[in-house]
Write a structure and sequence with these properties.
The chain has about 300 residues and is an alpha/beta fold. The protein is built from nine helices and eleven strands. Belongs to the LysR transcriptional regulatory family.
Length: about 300
């Protein structure tokens, strides 16, 4: 039995003949003449080493071996068709797995909305979220464990590209009993002397570095009472009365007891970018489809 010589066409011809119960009817369905079709079946029987059909007065019928082979052949053809469809969809960016890196407030608003839009357009794509800080996202991208990441400003990386996807206004998170709570906005200079719950410095730069530059530009020395790794903990500490914190628009979705959010004044350039980062050499259709959805979301926010 030479199984390596069996081709998909052999199986397709066999299945059509078995379902038609006639070489003549099968040749019409397959749009080939009957003699070549007969030769293909004879070749298949020789390769399998068994007879598949038996002639009857009113056509042909399957032998016991033919009936067994029919079920398997039909399943193989179905699986082959499904595999080809999956590869076609994958080539169009409509199928596959997308590994997305998120961290902090990015996971609270804009990224979920982008992913929701993407799921509606590409429901067959599996999306896996990874909670990684900036350094973790960069490492995972370089090791090809991540498709795309969302975080605050990324520094220059030779093999990575980033683009701004959203500009977010900064707010102060305070208790409802704090003097700032009734204000429509707060000047950056008014943060002098306030007990701040902020975030540790990162060697790769980021949100806290931008805040530190803003403090420097305003000639302020921040009074940091505690450093935390994420915005949820920062707002929780505000709720507990540990101090006030500086957060972005997205974090204002966090509803904790007694906490209110007051925007910093626009004239103080109190804004920060949310960026999307990816590998420079990744031209996969799946990533390009996701980038298109994210960019469309960005455009829709500007209207």
């Amino acid at each position: 039995m030479n199984l390596n010589a069996i081709e998909i066409r052999h199986l397709r011809y066999f299945v059509v003949i078995a379902e038609s119960r006639s070489f003549r009817a099968a040749s019409e369905r397959l749009h080939i003449s009957q003699p070549p079709l007969t030769r293909q079946v004879q070749q298949l029987e020789e390769l399998l080493g068994t007879q598949l059909f038996v002639r009857q007065p009113r056509g042909i019928d399957l032998t016991p071996a033919g009936r067994l082979f029919y079920e398997d052949a039909r399943n193989i053809l179905t699986l082959t068709e499904q595999a080809l469809d999956r590869m076609r969809l994958a080539g169009l960016g409509e199928l596959g797995r997308l590994d997305v890196g998120v961290f902090g407030s990015a996971a609270l608003d804009v990224v979920p909305r982008i992913i929701q839009s993407f799921r509606k357009q590409y429901p067959q794509v599996q999306i896996v979220l990874h909670n990684l800080d900036r350094a973790g996202q960069i490492k995972a991208l370089q090791e090809r464990r991540l498709t795309v990441g969302f975080n605050r400003f990324f520094g220059e990386e030779i093999d990575l590209e980033w683009e701004s996807i959203l500009t977010e206004r900064l707010h102060v998170a305070v208790l409802a009993t704090h003097p700032f709570a009734e204000r429509s906005s707060v000047a950056f200079g008014e943060l002098q002397g306030q007990p701040l719950v902020l975030y540790p410095r990162n060697p790769r730069g980021g949100f806290i570095d931008q805040l530190q530059r803003m403090f420097f530009d305003h000639e302020l020395t921040p009074t940091i009472v505690q450093e935390v790794d994420d915005v949820v903990t920062a707002v929780a500490l505000v709720s507990a009365g540990a101090g006030i914190s500086i957060v972005v628009d997205s974090a204002c979705n966090l509803s904790l007891p007694g906490v209110v959010y007051v925007p910093l004044r626009e004239k103080d350039r109190a804004n920060i970018e949310l960026c999307m980062i990816r590998r420079s050499d990744d031209e996969s259709p799946l990533l390009q489809a996701f980038l298109a959805v994210a960019r469309n979301h960005k455009r829709s926010q500007k209207r």
